[in-house]
Design brief:
Blueprint: E1 5-10, H1 16-26, E2 29-33, E3 37-42, H2 44-53, E4 59-68, H3 72-81, E5 94-102, H4 109-128, E6 133-134, E7 141-148, E8 151-157, H5 179-188, E9 197-200, H6 207-217, H7 238-245, E10 257-262, H8 265-277, E11 284-288, E12 302-306, H9 319-332, E13 337-343, H10 346-350, E14 358-364, E15 367-375, H11 381-390, H12 423-427, E16 441-442, E17 445-446, H13 454-462, E18 467-469, E19 475-477, H14 478-485, E20 497-502, E21 505-510
Parallel strand pairs: 5-6, 5-7, 9-10, 9-12, 10-11, 12-13
Antiparallel strand pairs: 1-3, 1-4, 2-3, 4-8, 7-8, 13-15, 14-15, 16-17, 18-19, 20-21
Helix pairs in contact: 2-7, 3-4, 5-6
Length: about 525
């Protein structure tokens, strides 16, 4: 039986859950989600399948050494002495190092790369008098260094080129969406090919279209790649990988249609090249059309996914008008569709003018974006919600109706222990006032029950009842006199301060201060 080992699949922020589901479906064990990564265990076959089949993974790493380091010299010493580098390299092979650093100790990833490279080179110079060479492109071995504070993890990169480089792209427009992110959004949208159509009204170079066709037909994303890094390893099993490569048990027939539109003729031409290279043109229809000119949906229902310009890498005049037009078309043309729009700026996204039923934070490269889900329906939201309830469906984002205690098999709230009140008590008007059951006093302040109704007190004061006249001839209610006026005392003593009356307020002023003019 093949030996299992730990692996790490890297991905974009926000796609960890989708990647975990993919790995579990492939047969991975001990699947655990992290931040922009998912850890799992498996054998070489699992590693080959993860590279070949995972749509939302960027790299598959195989950790082989973990240690703590507190300085650059300490890192150099441990890399040089803690690993038997002959197990991976020879003086005649080439290697490359990719470093990722989140640490206050090691602040520059490039410096970490140099120190690790020096440690490996000096290891071979001391033993063989010859060192392996560095090669940035297509090395024999790719080493990944990950540092989190003082925790250092050395891993073998089994992927080589990032897995978003599928191999089907012949050309691209400005600022295309990443293939891994596009596949993740489609899977989050629930696209699996069972729906009858998918639409991208601003398709650009056709990334969503090609990835949607790959998902719908069950085609592995690694089918178009020419090489994986694990094919250079000493323990590479060519027969095992050939078996995985030729396994078409997951492929299926897709009877629906995928539609792509774009205002630029150049974008449509590039999309055609990419679709043709992927050999998916029988499933995808392309047409040059401005979104403002779309007057009818191609079919009566389906999924709409799009990545409109953000105004960052690709500058567009009238960006807010574009988003407003998108919202108008969603509301009036694509009724019955589930729409998914990824955007960068919340103010710009708000110009769509529709209330999203869900928001998911995602990272598109270095940009912190948001994926918004819109359920497009005709009429009002209240009528749509009523229809969904009548069909026994739950509207996304809506909480289930809370059942009454009797429906849950519980006693009504008034009958529960400790909550019994008789009808007389329930009908009494609520009273306010000081209360203490024993009628005693605390600190000279009366705590006996002194109930009064605020409305009755106000009316009594208006009728002239309970009125007190102070020394200045001003009238106050006897309650105000009792609580505010009568008990106020000078701060420095009556011999040093004199009282001042401001309306109903009484304050004190030092006697030695001059009178105000």
């Amino acid at each position: 039986m093949a030996e299992n080992f730990e692996m790490v699949a890297k991905t974009f922020f926000g796609l960890e859950g989708v990647l975990a589901q993919e790995l579990t479906a492939l047969g991975a064990q001990d699947v655990k989600e992290g931040r922009r990564m998912v850890s799992f265990t498996g054998d070489n076959e699992m590693m080959y399948r993860a590279n070949f089949c995972c749509r939302t993974a960027l790299r598959i790493l195989k950790p082989f050494c973990v240690f703590k380091s507190t300085s650059a010299d300490d890192l150099y010493d441990k890399v040089r002495t803690c690993v038997h580098w002959e197990d991976f390299l020879t003086p005649d092979t080439t290697f490359a190092i990719d470093a990722t650093v989140y640490s206050d100790i090691f602040r520059h990833s490039q410096f970490v790369t140099y120190r690790v490279k020096d440690a490996i080179a000096d290891y071979f110079m001391d033993k063989y008098g010859k060192r392996p060479s560095i090669r940035i492109k297509s090395p024999d071995l790719q080493i990944n260094v990950h540092i989190a504070e003082d925790q250092v993890t050395l891993s073998l990169d089994s992927s080589g080129e990032p897995l978003f480089k599928r191999g089907w792209r012949a050309a691209q427009t400005d600022a295309p969406i990443n293939e891994v992110l596009a596949a993740g959004i489609l899977m989050m949208a629930g696209w699996d090919g069972s729906q009858k159509c998918l639409v991208d009204p601003m398709c650009g170079s056709g990334t969503f279209l090609v990835e949607a066709a790959l998902i719908a037909t069950g085609t592995p994303p690694g089918l178009y790649r020419e090489h994986f890094a694990f094919q250079n390893w000493r323990d590479y099993d060519a027969d095992l990988f050939a078996e995985i490569y030729n396994d078409d048990s997951m492929e299926r027939e897709f009877t629906g249609t995928i539609y792509g539109y774009d205002v630029l003729g150049k974008a449509i031409a590039i999309s055609r090249e990419n679709v043709k290279k992927a050999r998916l043109d029988k499933y995808i229809k392309l047409e040059r059309m401005d979104i403002a000119d779309i007057e009818a949906a191609p079919e009566s229902g389906g999924i709409l996914v799009t990545n409109p310009p953000y105004g960052q890498r690709l500058v567009v005049d009238g960006l807010w008008d574009l988003y407003a037009t998108l919202g108008t078309k969603l509301k009036h043309v694509f009724q019955g569709y589930d729409a998914w729009v990824i955007g960068y700026d919340s103010d710009t996204l708000s110009k769509i003018g529709l209330h999203p039923s869900g928001k998911t934070p995602l990272h598109n490269g270095s940009l912190e974006c948001e994926l918004r889900h819109y359920q497009i329906f005709s009429g009002t939201y209240a009528s749509y919600r009523a229809e969904q309830r009548a069909e026994g469906k739950m509207v996304k984002g809506e909480k289930p109706e809370r059942k009454q205690p009797e429906a849950r098999g519980e006693k009504p709230r008034s009958r529960r222990p400790g909550r019994e009140r008789d009808d007389a008590e329930r009908g009494q008007q609520r009273k306010f006032g000081w209360s203490r059951r024993d009628g005693g006093e605390r600190g000279g302040r009366p705590f006996g029950r002194k109930e009064f109704d605020r409305g009755q007190q106000r009316h009594a004061a208006n009728d002239g009842g309970g009125v007190v006249t102070d020394e200045q001839g001003r009238q106050h209610s006897d309650e105000f006199d009792k609580r505010v006026v009568r008990f106020r005392q000078p701060r420095l003593g009556a011999d040093k301060e004199r009282p001042i009356i401001h309306g109903r307020r009484q304050s004190w002023k030092r006697k030695d201060l001059p009178e105000e003019q």
